């Protein structure tokens, strides 16, 4: 009798475990489906095609779907400060080139006050004004002209919405190298925690920074890296709806959902090596306006490095003249 009772109890526990396992799998499936639906909805909202089909700097069409020997590509990151009553300027301009064969990414920050020809305007101006004159298309064309490389994709982030994205991931940690105050917020030197309300003035400040715009670029990279790190953590899984909603409201890109999946699948190892590049120049006052004048030799050096990373040297293209702000 005791043996029979033990067998019955054993079978009962097996049933209970089986039911719990089924519920766990079912919940996991529903959760995964809910996450996928929220993600695809956010990506659909973020998707913003542009008029041109391909860059004039690259005659061939690249593809991200190749599993073997996928093509290198480039992305222009635009951080746009669109305040009320302002057409907006791209105060953050970062070019990423991705090379899967070299397993590396190069990240170039372009100073917002760089004097260069604004393509479509026929005159030299600060490069961040290109967005105010012609939105993403003119920004892309101007950066292509300056660097003599194709820009395959763009990602635009509304800086006003930065606080929503930071709050969505539950705030971030950054290492602040400068004690300063901005817009009623004080930032002590050392490792600090930023919520959304604090993140925006943290990345906007440049007047108190002895490194000017270059110091601000470094804080922008810190916040972007902090968002990526926190967003990818296990703890953020419970906040996925807030995160995707914030991204959908504040990010625009011409990348499709399928292209994002291809990048994640075929290019993810490149993220293991990120090299940061900078274009340096001297501040000069022209016509009562301060610009950053980047020497031709500096531009040529950056052009060569990015072209090599994009494997443009394999096409047999001759060097293009260096654009100047004169």
Which structural traits does this protein have?
globular; two-stranded antiparallel sheet; 326 residues; transmembrane helix; Aminopeptidase; alpha+beta
What percent of residues adopt helix (DSSP H or I)? 40-55%
In DSSP terms (H or I, runs of 4 or more residues), the helix count works out at: 8
Count of strand segments: 14
C-alpha Rg, in Å?
A: 24 Å
Strand content range:
15-25%
- Quick one: overall form? globular
What spatial order of strands do you see in the largest sheet? Answer: 11-6-1-2-3-12
The domain count comes to: 1
Looking at CATH, the homologous superfamily is LCP protein
> Which structural class best describes the helix and strand composition?
alpha+beta
Topology pattern, helix = H, strand = E: HEEEEEHEHEEEEHHHEHEEEH
**What's the N-to-C terminus distance?**
100 Å
Major sheet: 6 strands, mixed
Extracellular side: 34-326
Keywords: Cell membrane, Cell wall biogenesis/degradation, Membrane, Signal-anchor, Transferase, Transmembrane, Transmembrane helix
Pathway: Cell wall biogenesis
Domain Cell envelope-related transcriptional attenuator: 89-231
Describe this structure in words.
The protein is an alpha+beta fold. It has a single domain, classed as Aminopeptidase (3-Layer(aba) Sandwich). The protein has eight helices and 14 strands. α1 packs parallel to α6, α3 packs across α4 and α4 packs antiparallel against α5. It is globular, with a radius of gyration of 24 Å. About 6% of the residues have low confidence. It holds the Pfam family LytR_cpsA_psr. It is an enzyme of class 2 (transferase). May catalyze the final step in cell wall teichoic acid biosynthesis, the transfer of the anionic cell wall polymers (APs) from their lipid-linked precursor to the cell wall peptidoglycan (PG). Its EC number is 2.7.8.-. InterPro entries: LytR/CpsA/Psr_CW_biosynth (IPR050922), LytR_CpsA_psr (IPR004474), TagU (IPR023734).
């Amino acid at each position: 009798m005791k043996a029979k009772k033990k067998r019955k109890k054993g079978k009962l526990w097996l049933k209970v475990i089986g039911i719990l396992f089924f519920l766990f799998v079912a919940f996991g499936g529903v959760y995964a489906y809910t996450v996928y639906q929220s993600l695809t909805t956010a990506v659909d909202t973020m998707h913003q095609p542009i008029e041109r089909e391909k860059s004039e700097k690259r005659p061939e069409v690249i593809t991200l779907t190749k599993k073997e020997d996928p093509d290198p590509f480039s992305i222009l990151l635009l951080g746009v400060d669109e305040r009320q009553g302002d057409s907006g300027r791209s105060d953050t301009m970062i070019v990423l080139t991705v090379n899967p064969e070299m397993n590396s990414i190069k990240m170039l920050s372009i100073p917002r006050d760089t004097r260069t020809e604004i393509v479509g305007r026929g005159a030299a101006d600060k490069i961040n004004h290109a967005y105010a004159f012609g939105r993403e298309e003119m920004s892309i064309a101007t950066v292509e002209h300056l660097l003599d490389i194709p820009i395959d994709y763009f990602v635009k982030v509304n800086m006003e919405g930065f606080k929503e994205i930071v709050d969505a991931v539950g705030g971030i940690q950054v290492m602040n190298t400068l004690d300063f105050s901005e817009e009623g917020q004080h930032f002590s030197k050392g490792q600090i925690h930023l919520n959304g309300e604090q993140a925006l003035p943290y990345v906007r400040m440049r007047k108190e920074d002895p490194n000017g715009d270059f110091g601000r670029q470094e804080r922008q990279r810190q916040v972007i890296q902090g968002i990526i790190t926190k967003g990818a953590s296990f703890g953020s899984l419970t906040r996925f709806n807030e995160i995707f909603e914030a991204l959908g409201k504040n990010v625009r890109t011409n990348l499709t959902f399928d292209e994002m999946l291809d990048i994640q699948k075929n290019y993810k190892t490149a993220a293991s090596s990120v090299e940061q590049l900078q274009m340096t120049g001297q501040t000069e006052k022209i016509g009562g306006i301060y610009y950053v004048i980047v020497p031709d030799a500096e531009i040529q050096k950056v052009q060569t490095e990015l072209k090599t990373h994009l494997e443009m040297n394999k096409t047999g293209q001759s060097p293009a003249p260096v654009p100047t702000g004169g």
